[in-house]
Amino acid sequence: MKYVLITGGVVSGLGKGVTASSIGVVLQACGLRVTSIKIDPYLNTDAGTMSPFEHGEVFVLDDGGEVDLDLGNYERFLDVTLTKDNNVTTGKIYQSVLDKERKGDYLGKTVQVVPHITDAIKDRIEAVALIPVDGKEGPADVCVIELGGTVGDIESMPFIEALRQLSFSVGKDNFCLIHVSLIPVLGVVGEQKTKPTQHSVRELRALGLTPHLLACRSAQPLLDNTKIKLSQFCHVEAANILNIHDVPNIWHIPLLLRNQNAHHSILKQLNLLSIATPPDLEAWTRRAETFDNLTDSVRIAMVGKYVGLTDSYLSVVKALLHACIACSLKPSIDWIAASDLEDDTAQSAPEAYAAAWKSLRNAECVLVPGGFGDRGVSGMILAAKYARENNVPYLGICLGMQISVIEYARSVLGLEKANSNEFDDETPDPVVIFMPEGSRTHMGSTMRLGSRRTLFQTPDCVTSKLYCNPHYVDERHRHRYEVNPDVIGVLEEAGLKFVGKDETGKRMEVLELPSHPFYIGVQFHPEFKSRPGKPSALFLGLILAARGKLEAYLTRHQNGS
């Protein structure tokens, strides 16, 4: 197994995840099979209980793993299906070592960070690297490892030491280290400063790791004298200093790396030049250029709880982008804090209230994504009601589906106190209830998680036509509450159709309103499986409906064209 390690220096948030994904893309384009590992030095076992405000979205994998959003980048860029083991955390490592210590596996030895924790890290990396993720038999050719955080952080020290040992044990032909660093420009002089990167590399070398390549983040392309300086003081060949400057969209990054011959430097270091082919990035080039040249945009109202941090909905934003590009449109997302639509805000912050309603009324379609807790729920219900009554295309995901059920029960069935048990334990009309596939007391890994099959109840529904499958679809889930099976009958009599159910028929997966141009709610999260060039069917449907092109698209596809 060949390893490519990506570390980061100077500051966090430099785009190590996108860099790691892009390096994977370029190596894939050279005909190699690639897998990925993300190391997160935090003590949480996984990302499942973290606030989206603090850590961005929680990405869900097929096997139910709740992981860092960088694994979403890997899946989208590399078109692979990762496992929960591809996200290594300090919590997982320490838990495994402590479990072994309690079982007596260390035979009375003093259990220490070195060698026991570092050995556990090495063993975990080597085992996970062998898991096939691209649907083919056998292990990949190259494993790209991203070490979260910044070199010098106390929490990542055991990982750095383990990776130093790994680089030594696998041999220099099987290990390539790429250090991502920042080249700031200070003041009016506009000089590119190399000192932060010099210090970062010096720290890395003091810990026993010497970078083979430097990936320098900067606003503008690096000047030649900056490269010479970096090469001289960081002990890295000038040809191996890559510049990842700001680009119009992240699909340019693999092309940027290819244009600087990054693949050649990496393949040379890993002794793979003889088996690799020249990189074929035609599809990526087309995609990046198409995106750059789009002029017509579609206005999408995103009504959610965590709109202050767009990373909270990263996969939803990417799925909208994939769908828009397939329709030759640019997404123009109006972020609406759900609470700003509520009547209380009209009194407390009239300007925010007016702006939120103006954005909603100007939108061509409405999307209510997932979330937890009762903040902003009233605003989401108002958004769903607005979309339903005004024939505006609506897609509700997870909580967004439950919102549409609560709104329909209140507005159409006249059940004014209809609610979810999540928001009101005492509601006389619980239309959304806790469905026990998990525990009420433990928050981590207690939800209905991972890929589950949804069976379509009728091949005529819009959702099955969009998925081009009259029978079923497999999508990823992450929720504790579901539509109450006892109210399905009355809701369907009133016109709301539950066209997708799980294999038991008790869990409602997809709802549609046949009298509406596009009003769909899904209990699963279709955004997690959207890919560039292969948009999620429901997001594509939403954008087509926003432009009045859905009927023509469905007719064309039914005729097999």
UniProtKB/TrEMBL annotation:
Its EC number is 6.3.4.2. Residues 2-272 form the CTP synthase N-terminal domain. Signal peptide: none annotated. It catalyses: UTP + L-glutamine + ATP + H2O = CTP + L-glutamate + ADP + phosphate + 2 H(+). Keywords: ATP-binding, Glutamine amidotransferase, Ligase, Nucleotide-binding, Pyrimidine biosynthesis. HAMAP family: PyrG. This is CTP synthase. It comes from Gossypium australe.
